[in-house]
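Re: export button greyed out
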Amino acid sequence: MRRLFLPLFFVLTVLASAQTLTVGSKKFTESYVLGEIAKKVLNDAGFQVDHRQGIGSTGIVWEALKKGDITIYPEYTGTITEEILKKPGLTTEQIQAELAKFGVRMSPELGFNDAYGLVMRKDEAAKLGITKISDLRTHPELKCGITHELLGRKDGWDPLLAKYGMNFSDVKAIDHGLGYEALAAGQTDVKDCYTTDAEIQKYNLVVLDDDLHFFPLYRAVYLYRQDMPKRAVDAIAAMAGTIKEPLMIAMNARASKDKAYGQAAVMYFQSLGQKNAKIAEENRWQKTLQLTGQHLFLVGVSLLLAIVISIPLGIVAAKPGTTSWLILSVCGVIQTIPSLALLALLVPISFFGTTPKTAIAALFLYSLLPIVRNTATGIQQIPPSLKESAEALGLSPGDRLRKIYLPMALPLILAGIKTSAVINVGTATIAALIGSGGLGDPIVKGLSLNDNPTILWGAVPAAVLALLVQLAFDLVDRAIVPKGLRLK
Amino acid sequence: MVELKGVGKRYDGHVALQPLDVSFEKGKVTALIGPSGCGKSTLLRIILGLIEPSSGSVSIAGETVTPQSAQEIRRKVGYVVQDGGLFPHLTAGQNVTLMSKTLGRQPTEIEGRLDELCELTHIERSMMQRYPAELSGGQRQRIGLMRALALKPRLLLLDEPLGALDPLVRAGLQSDLKEIFKQGDQTVVFVTHDMGEAAYLADHIVLLRSGQVVQQGSLKDFQEQPAEPFVNEFLSAQRQIGAIA
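Workaround output, generated via the alternate export path:
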């Protein structure tokens, strides 16, 4: 019977896991909310759904989709043509054909356009009778507060002025968030925006109609893998045209108030008439525990691998010579690679991608130097007279290493492992940049949303964890370093 | 027992040992003596294969010492260095039984041998639990001796075994060593720079200077027929304290 059960169990597991879909999202509020919506829609269609929030920027999320790390994520038509395919001006059919080459499909448009636009205070616009951008031609006196990004883009501010044939006497470069406050306070009159920014509602602003169609359209869609089950494709297709700008603005406003993306997403289902729609908000304690678990997993696995590889390397490096120099140099050079650059190097390798393997590989590489160097030094500093005694006894080279050299070098080797472990706990926060979780997750989220409490939610437990790891290793030290080496 | 033929050693042009022929008779105690840097410790290390000679060959009981054969040969030879050369992470007992355990001897046999050795070297059995850092210099030296004797070697080599000890401890150990040398039937070669110690412990003395054998024989031979003026010089330098007393 057992022989029968095991394959059956395996098949069932595979079937069950095939039904699990992974939603991805980028690191900004709207993407989180659309991710939560897709999660519930697919969930309601009978799928097990996981939402990997804020995986990264366009490039990283696109890679994750192509590789199958995620099944679906929210995207914009403008981004697809300009950034992903780099072929502006494609029709919907042409986009689908291009995406098909990567095994990806595009859903119908969700109903809103999150494009660049220009905003003014509603009352001011009404007073001057301005409803569209071409109306600005006759008001060169209006003060403009424009983001550095739009000012810097080749298809940005200057071409906009040229296309509309207008000019302003007072144009300042200003940060996106601060720009809204300046506009609301009346210090500026015109600002660039994303057309679904929550601030439009919050500050009672109006988006001017792009009547000459200067800005490319950024219509929201979902990109999904061709192999997504038909039932899921249908559920997503049914969302066509159901999210209009005002609803998206309202959801963004709700979400940026207290980062309750689920609550924001619920507004969508209520707009469809599902009065009792619910999305459970995550429990912070439970989430912290889960993130800590992921964090420890990343640190633990990478450290274990590093120990297994570094101690033999350190033993080889203990013998002065070219090999030793080479080993220590390579480990040293790895240490100088910035963690972001290392991730960027690893992600395109198909074995790694945006999986935890990448984070583990990076942490593993950073762990090598302290352990290799300390192992080598630990063996080198054994007095030559004792090395000679070991040899003179007739111990084989292997026995000398196992019974004499390594035990005598143990305190230094442990110190190296401890250094690596503590550094790893800190460095492991970068795993969140590629959606591998850990305590870096709230930090990255907090940074991209400019939300300090969220940053601290990740940073404080990470610091505490580093202290605990240090403490744990101090205890290990006492337990396994031979008493004779602690006597002075 | 030990045969050195044309054995010499040079490091980067510096001569540590002139090519020489020496043999150490089975069951005899030989002292290698001479001023610092005369090559006596180098000679001992060459016998054990710890240093490869630049010329010549060493054979122990008819077996030539080579890098390949050295490990096996060392297990049949006891080697004692100044201050014992004990491993700090092992207790005294673990130091002594290290090789027997490595070679897979029976625990009862190992324990029995440990008792014998404690008695032989006048060390209390309870000392076996201590770490080297918890022992006095004389105790460390005795434990080093126990370790060298653990496998009942046919050849015992001692490199200034009493060099680091104060005079009282030294005197006690000298008489114990004499006892031990007498009891066993092993061949003994020890290095010292003290002619009194050499005369007291050894049947045969080899005097070295600048990597060359000056004279060998008994103390009496040295006194009555010095090979060259250096022999007299060395003896009188050693006898100064006795002369004052």
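Chain A touches chain B at residues 385-386, 388-396, 399, 403-404, 407-408, 410, 482-485, 487-488 (CB under 8 Å). The button fix ships in the next patch.
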